[in-house]
């Protein structure tokens, strides 16, 4: 569920990269402040995107501070702090909690549950502060679990749950940007769901786990790759369209880097893996051919 | 009321210029900034107008793309280039549009060239790209399309058209830079954090 909204740092200006990193570190520091080192492991780029989006839209003033990081000893690090960092860190903990509980339900791995339980207190506090947001997340996580257990075949229904959930989280303040932010979150959520299913397909197929894309793959193998690529592209396009309608000038280039490039990182990585495997199969085939 | 007039900008303004104008005006007329203003009601009215004008322009620009079906139409050669949704299209542009719809690319190009360079917005570059493509000048078409996209990044019709020109290279060019797609930085940070977690468990 996490880790799909990356930036393509290779094609980022040095200045943008520093800003991006400072928000990322800001999120990490905030997670630590809220839930200690256990919450810090929930750190991810997806929420960094939302922080930068909200900071840009609301033109928030960010406090820049330096700190030393145990992960990067000896080097002074910079981080940004603003209200969006705090909000996103809280939502990050909520999503992280459910993600771990979900993993536990799938794998019965007790360490996941133990870790999730360690957030229980801070989770409850966040629920009191943002009852609507947390209720929406809980409702959608339940809906996803229900749909998975009835082996829902409609990909749009499944992706729609994730979309609705992220849409709700994107709407930080209920103001004129409600619709623009909700639409962005909705399509990004759908993208994440499909990308997650696409990423896990081989593993789920092997383990006989539920995966809505398996149905697609089984009924039309040849078109499967094209179908996935088009589905993902259309979701990102809609998300980017809503983004371009918002009056964002600050950090706009970082956000465009993510929406038009970085978001494909995992997809491209998988293409390379698939390509390598196909080449290997081809090679193996030709070797056995020689033997025959 | 003409939304461009409300924001005090020309219809050929780039998306960023529209956003900038909106930002400064909405800040000026924001109710929070006018608490002590004797003309508070007027400022509030103006604030609403600015908001509405911005929404209208953004919607209009995105709808600019909604003419004709996309993609598949191109292979058949002819497309309808209705630009009816966009307000304030000049007579020259309308003429060029008519020529394009009829497949008279040279005529369209002539009309377009007659338009003063200072009045050339995203639509102009888009039409010039379509005309160039019709004339078989693909590299010129690509340049014009790139300019149209640069002027109006929110217009997906332009982007899609550009992708069509490049044989859907819009995403392909981006993926080209993914030869080393894995983000070592993120992995490293999180791996270390996980290690830290592990240490935390045993100490």
Quick structural summary:
The complex is a heterodimer of chains A (292) and B (203). Chain A is mostly helical and 292 residues long.
How many strand units of chain A? Answer: 2
Number of helices of chain A: 12
Alpha plus pi helix count of chain B: 11
Q: Report the β-strand fraction of chain B as a percent range.
A: under 5%
| Overall tally of structural domains of chain B | 2
Distance between the termini of chain B: 69 Å
Query: Stretches of chain A where pLDDT falls below 50 for ≥5 residues?
Result: 288-292
Radius of gyration of chain B: 23 Å
Describe the structure in your own words:
The complex is a heterodimer of chains A (292) and B (203). Chain A is mostly helical and 292 residues long. Chain A has a domain at 130-248. Chain A contains 12 helices and 2 strands, in the order ααββαααααααααα. Chain A has a two-stranded antiparallel ribbon. In chain A, α2 (45-57) packs across α11 and α7 (155-170) crosses α8. Chain A is globular, with a radius of gyration of 20 Å. Chain B has 203 residues and is mostly helical. Chain B has 2 domains: 3-65, DnaJ domain (Helix Hairpins, Orthogonal Bundle), CATH 1.10.287.110; 72-176, Alpha Horseshoe (Serine Threonine Protein Phosphatase 5, Tetratricopeptide repeat), CATH 1.25.40. Chain B has helices spanning 3-7, 15-29, 40-63, 72-75, 91-102, 105-114, 122-134, 138-151, 156-165, 169-176, 184-202. In chain B, α2 (15-29) runs antiparallel to α3, α6 (105-114) packs antiparallel against α7 (122-134) and α7 packs antiparallel against α8 (138-151). Chain B starts with a helix and ends with a helix.
Give the key terms.
heterodimer, A: 292 residues, mainly alpha, two-stranded antiparallel ribbon, 12 helices, 2 strands, globular, disordered C terminus, B: 203 residues, Helix Hairpins, Serine Threonine Protein Phosphatase 5, Tetratricopeptide repeat, 11 helices, 66% helix, elongated
């Amino acid at each position: 569920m996490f880790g799909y909204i990356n930036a393509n740092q290779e094609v980022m200006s040095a200045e943008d990269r520093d800003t991006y990193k400072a928000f990322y570190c800001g999120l990490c520091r905030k997670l630590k402040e809220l839930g200690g080192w256990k919450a810090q492991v929930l750190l991810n780029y997806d929420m960094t995107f939302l922080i930068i989006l909200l900071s840009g839209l609301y033109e928030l003033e960010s406090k820049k501070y330096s700190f030393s990081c145990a992960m990067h000893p000896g080097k002074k690090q910079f981080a940004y702090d603003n209200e969006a960092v705090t909000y996103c860190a809280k939502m990050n903990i909520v999503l992280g909690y459910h993600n771990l509980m979900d993993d536990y339900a799938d794998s019965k791995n007790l360490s996941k549950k133990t870790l999730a339980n360690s957030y229980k207190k801070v989770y409850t506090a966040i629920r009191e502060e943002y009852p609507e947001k947390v209720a929406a997340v809980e409702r959608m996580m339940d809906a996803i679990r229900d749909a998975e257990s009835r082996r829902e075949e409609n990909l749009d229904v499944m992706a729609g749950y994730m979309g609705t959930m992220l849409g709700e989280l994107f709407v930080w303040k209920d103001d004129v940007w409600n619709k623009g932010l909700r639409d962005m979150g909705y399509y990004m959520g759908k993208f994440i769901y499909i990308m997650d299913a696409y990423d896990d397909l081989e593993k789920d197929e092997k383990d006989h786990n539920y995966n809505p894309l398996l149905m697609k793959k089984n009924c039309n193998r040849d078109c499967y790759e094209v179908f996935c690529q088009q589905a993902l592209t259309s979701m990102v396009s809609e998300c980017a369209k809503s983004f371009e309608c918002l009056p964002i000038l600050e950090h706009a280039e970082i956000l465009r880097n993510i929406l038009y490039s970085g978001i494909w990182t995992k997809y491209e990585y998988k293409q390379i893996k698939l390509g390598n495997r196909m080449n290997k199969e081809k090679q193996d085939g030709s070797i056995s051919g020689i033997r025959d | 009321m003409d939304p461009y007039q409300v924001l005090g900008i020309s219809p050929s303004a780039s998306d960023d210029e529209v956003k900038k104008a909106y930002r400064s005006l909405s800040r000026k007329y924001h109710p929070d900034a006018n608490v002590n203003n004797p003309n508070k009601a007027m400022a509030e009215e103006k604030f609403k107008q600015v908001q509405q004008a911005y929404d209208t322009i953004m919607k209009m620009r995105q709808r600019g793309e909604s003419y004709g079906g996309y993609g598949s139409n191109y292979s058949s050669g002819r497309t309808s280039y209705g630009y009816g949704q966009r307000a304030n299209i000049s007579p020259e542009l309308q003429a060029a549009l008519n020529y394009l719809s009829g497949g008279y690319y040279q005529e369209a190009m002539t009309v377009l060239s007659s338009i003063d360079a200072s009045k050339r917005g995203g639509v102009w570059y888009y039409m010039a790209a379509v005309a160039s493509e019709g004339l078989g000048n693909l590299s010129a078409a690509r340049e014009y399309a790139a300019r149209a996209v640069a002027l109006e990044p929110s217009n997906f019709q332009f982007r899609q058209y550009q992708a069509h020109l490049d044989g859907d290279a819009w995403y392909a060019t981006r993926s080209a830079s993914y030869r080393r797609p894995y983000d070592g930085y993120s992995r490293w940070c999180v791996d270390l954090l996980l290690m830290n977690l592990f240490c935390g468990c045993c100490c």
